[in-house]
Design brief:
Structural class: mainly beta
Low-confidence stretches: none
Strand order of the largest sheet: 9-15-14-11-12
Number of strands: 15
Distance between the termini: 37 Å
Number of helices: 0
Shape: elongated
Length: about 170
């Protein structure tokens, strides 16, 4: 019998990379996962783990198929994805809202110019600083920071560069 399909497929896209995670079926446990991108010349990724990433600037969809040790294939699970163009400096969290059961979340930021100093900060709703990271000599482009999740609540991420200050409101929920 074929394996059950994967479940809880999550997509996170930063400016040029698609990150995909999913839950493996419990019984029987598959040996491999095939992620296929039919809209991108049928590009295929085969992996033994429950996550994959792909750099791309093309919108489309993908399918994930679980494959067991004798080659039986599950029904494929499909999901659409859309990349958005970035026209200015950008700051966002993924996912938003953050689930507190997730141990970490990501802050993505894109800067349009070389910056001597960049500060990334997170404040709770009372205005107290709860996390901060400082960078020096960052090139133009996309960057990300991984942050340990906090208690449930509303937070403000702040990006300060040589030229701009941006903020982004996000939530952590239980």
């Amino acid at each position: 019998t074929p394996p059950n399909p994967v479940s809880d497929v999550k997509c996170v896209m930063n400016l040029e990379t698609l990150y995909i995670e999913w839950k493996a079926p419990v019984d029987p446990c598959p040996l491999l996962y095939e992620i296929s991108f039919p809209t991108d010349n049928d590009h295929t990724i085969v992996t033994e783990v429950t996550k994959a990433s792909k750099k791309n600037h093309q919108n489309g969809f993908f399918t994930i198929t679980a494959i067991d040790e004798v080659g039986n294939r599950s029904n494929p699970i499909s999901q659409d994805f859309i990349f958005t163009a970035v026209l200015s400096d950008k700051l966002y969290t993924a996912p938003n809202p953050v689930q507190s059961k997730d141990k970490t979340f990501k802050i993505f930021f894109f800067i349009n110019n070389f910056n001597k100093t960049v500060e990334l900060s997170i404040y709770n709703i009372a205005g107290q600083l709860v996390w901060e990271k400082k960078y020096s000599d960052l090139e133009k482009g996309e960057h990300e920071a991984t942050v340990n999740a906090f208690v449930s609540g509303v937070y403000i991420a702040k990006l300060k560069t040589d030229k701009i200050v941006k903020s982004h409101k996000f939530a952590i929920i239980q």
